[in-house]
Prior knowledge:
Number of helices: 3
CATH class: Mainly Beta
Radius of gyration: 20 Å
Protein name: Fibronectin type III domain-containing protein
Low-confidence stretches: 7-19
InterPro entries: Ig-like_fold (IPR013783)
Structural class: alpha+beta
Organism: Hymenobacter endophyticus
Amino acid sequence: xxxIATLAVICLLVSVLTYxxxxxxxxxxxxxxxxxxxxxxxxxxxxxxxxxYRQDYPxxxxxxxxxxxxxxxxxxxxxxxxxxxxxxxxxxVTYRLxxxxxxxxxxxxxxxxxxxDNLVARxxxxxxxxxx
Length: 132
């Protein structure tokens, strides 16, 4: 019987260490010459860090830009000020969030950088559509 209890405790410990966070939101929003990233994380037990990667157009690979430690927040924010204006205007910029666990596993979440919501441009597009 003690062997079963020890085995159960070991299995429980391993599952907690490799569980990771549940990311319910990951968003990238272009704001001028920077990109604002935000994500919501719950159940952070077993998380050792968040790694943020950026993929610039036309590259195929992701480059790591920062690693953040978990601090039991519900919302995380990071602003990438090192984005090239030409890249943001001429091709898609994609971000990847890697949730690294104490057990060494990673879970990935990917989001394209969305342009700012420009009310004037949207209104002008609506007016142009009316006269087609």
